[in-house]
Amino acid sequence: MTVTYTARVANARFGGFSQLLLLWRGSIYKLLWRELVCFLGLYMALSAAYRFVLTEGQKRYFEKLVIYCDQYASLIPVSFVLGFYVTLVVHRWWNQYLCMPLPDALMCVVAGTVHGRDERGRLYRRTLMRYAGLSAVLILRSVSTAVFKRFPTIDHVVEAGFMTREERKKFENLNSSYNKYWVPCVWFSNLAAQARREGRIRDNSALKLLLEELTVFRGKCGMLFHYDWISVPLVYTQVVTIAVYSYFLACLIGRQFLDPAQGYEGHNLDLCVPIFTLLQFFFYAGWLKVAEQLINPFGEDDDDFETNFLIDRNFQVSMLAVDEMYDDLAMLEKDLYWDATEARAPYTAATAFLRQQPSFQGSTFDITLAKEDMQFQRLDGVDGPLGEAHGDFLQRLLPVGAGMGAGGLLGRRLSLMRRKNSCVSETSTAASCTCAGAPDGTAPECGCGDPLLDSGLREPEPELPAGPELPVPGPAAEPFTTVPMPAPRGPAPPWLPSPIGEEEESLA
After folding, report:
1. Given CA atoms 425, 428, 430, 433 in this order, what sign does their dihedral have?
2. For all residues of the chain together, what is the average pLDDT?
3. Are 182 and 135 in contact (CB under 8 A)?
4. Angle at 233 between CA 231 and CA 239, to 5 degrees
5. Residue 395: is its pLDDT beyond 70?
6. What is the mean pLDDT of the segment spanning 417-431?
7. What are the angstrom distances between the C-alpha of 2 and each of 25, 98, 145, 388?
8. Full-model pTM
9. What is the reported pLDDT for 508?
10. How far is it, in rounded angstroms, from Cα 250 to Cα 74?
11. How far, in Å, CA of 21 to CA of 28, rounded?
């Protein structure tokens, strides 16, 4: 069963992880104690032979061998090779769990797209989810020893209720030498198409959504099969294993304590137990044991996946979702915060302090600037408000050529832009004018009615080149009448066309 200790490390505190060191099930001690006892026993046997069995000449030769092994054992790149290997295995281990076929998304789609409260509609939904569960059982019994022990034959699968006897005949009569975990997914597709023809699935979009979720489910089953088929390359595993075992085989000799009377460098102390060598063995060999346990998480180790538990959970939950919970809704009621302008759930006494903490607004929210640093600066470097230079800035951007003088089309466009920018404030304050209360809305002698026609507010417009005046037909009494200039308008919203283009059309 998976060892879970998440609640014990929910809060970081002094000595919090020290409690985990006392656990036995799923621990490194349970994995490594046999190898550690063997290593220590061999080391003590060599040490005893050096001290009590060998002659003086043999001791001198053994001492030279110890120095040689200790000098060249560091050439074995144990940390480098082992680190990359464990990283690969852990990444592969987590990806295999992500590929576990869970029916949660599929059962929600089945419950929402396959309709009918009668017995046949219920039969459709339950059979569809049973096919999905059957596909998961077939693939898990192919990759997991625990599931295979539970369902060693197809007869056990039939007796467990995942497959009927008629379905077993069709399954076994299908001639294929490959793993047939995908067959129930095909049955699922055929049954969904039949439900669509009968109107249980009301449109093709719902059928498409259902088959897309089935494809995701089947893809996870296929990935489990490929993870079981394609292992970590054997040469990589062999290199790592040989590197670790050869390193500690050299340490058995190279880490022996020699007679201090011989004056060898680094051998001034004689101890019986190599404490730091044992720690090094514990770390490196334990690292290798971690990889050995995680390289196939579908076994029966302490930290392997709970495949049988997942089968039971998935089957029960999927049947509840598509059968008892189908079209079962609570009465609609107004929620507790129906009339609240700012809905906020209450806090208990243990979490009341969280209400006093301000919400996060952004990392720059608390930055303060001096008042003079918050003033916009003109691009030309001239002192004065930024808005005064708007027309001059546009004049500098638009070049004046032979055909673009003051009387040209571009000059009229620029003049209109300046007039519109200058009359925005007057237009916006028209409601406060004293003549706004006139019956017709304006006064002839007041200049606020039409800022563009007010000679005191606008700039003198350059004269247009002489040309034929275009008369506009009027009523029968007046053969021709003049067209009044359109009243000025305020700044146009950003989703409307530019007002400059409209003025150009009127000028044309």
Report:
1. negative
2. 82
3. yes
4. 135
5. no
6. 48
7. 10, 16, 16, 74
8. 0.70
9. 47
10. 10
11. 9
Evaluate whether 285 touches 248 at the Cβ level (below 8 Å).
yes
State the CB neighbour count (10 A cutoff) for residue 314.
Answer: 21
The better pLDDT of the pair 153, 446 is held by 153
Give the pLDDT confidence score for residue 12 in this predicted structure. Answer: 82
CA atoms within 13 A on the CB side of 74: 5
Alpha helices in 230-377 (DSSP H): 234-254, 275-294, 307-319
Q: Which two tokens stand for residue 226?
A: 């490929």
Q: Which residues, other chains included, contact 400 with Cβ-Cβ below 8 Å and sequence gap of 6+?
A: 410, 411
pLDDT at position 397: 53
Q: CA-CA distance, 14 to 264, in Å (whole number)? A: 44
Instruction: For 402, list phi and psi in degrees, rounded to 5.
Output: -65, -40
Residue 451 · residue 423 · CB < 8 Å: yes
Supply the pLDDT for residue 17: 83
Q: How far apart are CA 190 and CA 184, in angstroms?
A: 10
Instruction: With beta carbons less than 8 A apart as the criterion, state whether 423 and 457 touch.
Output: yes
Residue 140 pLDDT greater than 70, yes or no: yes
Give the Cα separation of 301 and 269 in Å (integer): 42
Q: What average pLDDT score do residues 76-95 get? A: 94
Q: Using alpha carbons, select from 24, 15, 31 the residue that is nearest to residue 282.
A: 31
**Residue-level pLDDT at 381:** 62
Helix or strand holding residue 480 (H, E): strand 480-481
CA atoms within 13 A on the CB side of 480: 5
**What angle in degrees, to the nearest 10, is found between the helix axes of 119-143 and 104-113?**
160
- In the block, tokens 């799923």 appear at 26
Q: What is the DSSP letter of 447?
A: T
Contact 204, 229 (CB under 8 A): no
82, two tokens: 């082992």
Q: Which amino acid is at 421?
A: N
Give the pLDDT band (50/70/90) at residue 412: low
SS3 201: coil
388: confidence class by pLDDT, cuts 50, 70, 90: low
- Give the three-class secondary structure for 121: helix
Going 403 to 404 to 407 to 412, the CA torsion angle's sign is positive
CB of 163 within 8 A of CB of 134?
Answer: yes
- Picking from 461, 434, 451, 439, the residue whose alpha carbon sits closest to that of residue 487 is 451
480 bridge partner residues: 473
